[in-house]
């Protein structure tokens, strides 16, 4: 018998010619067997070690928050990849530094993507261990592959940089009216010695190309922002006040900034993205989510209900609190902009104050939405005609992933019962989204969103989840949004607006 992996075989042991086996030979034989057993034992232990490590229990309590963090990272990476690939056409391929910076950024994005792929596999394993319905988005790709870089032939271009004729030749390639840019056609990689001699003669007798130069190429540096002059990464551009002033409108109270043009490209050829301010880190601006979405459909036009004098009086204090928060946000945004002007940075005091103002604006708006929802139920289902029972806790606002208000409404005349689900929003709030297992994000008000919430509820409130499931299956569930309406002149309570979702 032969033992592999280089161990001594039985036939290799010393054998005496005659007589008993010498003691030294027996000892050597026994030592070899002991060593062999030890080696095999170590191999078994080493092989078992990964299996033991893999069996570490998952932390099911923190799984949702870590999955949410992963989704945010994936969305952020997708935006960076889109911005990176959007700049490919604008990279100066005769500039070794620009090409190198672009390719270095591609390498960094590939490394981030590989890291997220590893995170996703680990989280999927934990989801299985925890028997969770948590979903994870796919790690973003562009065109089904990795972030792209300019063609490799652009790297040998540095020799052309010191040649004076190269400067007038740069704007020529995009121009349709330049049929003869010898500097571009002549210097393939193998002909590098020629560029210094070739561009000079034709560059002087060509006055026409200047008329055909595109505006983006002809702009002097004075008309470009500092971040455009150095073709900075998109996150740096978004946090440059001059860049935002050039491509975006004034910021709204909810932190969102609309673009002056949804199809605009900046001086480097990158598509100008939609952005918002990070409310948890005031003074920092990020791209908004860009993923497949399914939006809510409406069953009927919106219905506006005017407040009674009694309702206006009851809501005077809450609306005043909200108006004060909105005023503080506007004042602190101006203070932030003044501090960040000319390359400055937001002070810690302003950042903390603005974060607090955003939080107060959100919470006071939510309180107004809750009040509007209860007024709508009281108006639409008066106690004289209906028995109404709320299934959600009025003292617990819940949070993302919870239904705001759920009621059972029974007609006293017929005894028929229906379940009413209300999404109640602050005056300037919009409908949110939730990710599905198919990679799409479903807006509040869609049947898919409602099913995702009910599925999650089975782990927190089994009874309510069962009630909602039966009502949805029998067609006895109504789903609508209720939002407060404030007077434009002084922000006082003016009533509410309600609209039914179509979830058929």
Explain what the structure shows.
This protein has helices spanning 23-54, 63-86, 96-130, 166-169, 182-185, 200-203, 209-212, 215-218, 226-229, 234-238, 241-247, 309-314, 316-340, 348-380, 447-457, 462-474; strands spanning 256-257, 275-277, 285-287, 293-294, 303-306, 386-390, 405-411, 417-424, 433-435, 441-443, 477-486, 493-500. It is α+β, with helices and mostly antiparallel strands. α13 runs antiparallel to α14 and α15 (447-457) packs antiparallel against α16. The protein contains 16 helices and twelve strands. The model is unreliable at 1-27, 39-56 and 142-218 (pLDDT under 50). β2 and β3 form a beta hairpin. The radius of gyration is 34 Å and the shape is globular. A six-stranded mixed β-sheet has the order 5-12-11-8-7-6. The chain has a three-stranded antiparallel β-sheet with strand order 1-2-3, with no helix packed on it. A three-stranded mixed β-sheet has the order 4-10-9, covered by helices on one side.
**Cα end-to-end separation:** 74 Å
Portion in strands: 5-15%
- Largest sheet composition: 6 strands, mixed
**Mean pLDDT over the full residue set:** 75
The structural class is: alpha+beta
Whole-number radius of gyration? 34 Å
- Strand arrangement, largest sheet? 5-12-11-8-7-6
Quaternary state reads single chain
How many strands in all? 12
If helices are DSSP runs of H or I spanning 4 or more residues, what is the number of helices? 16
The geometry reads as: globular
Uncertain regions: pLDDT < 50 for 5+ in a row? 1-27, 39-56, 142-218
What helical percentage do the residues reach? 40-55%
Order of helices and strands: HHHHHHHHHHHEEEEEHHHEEEEEHHEE
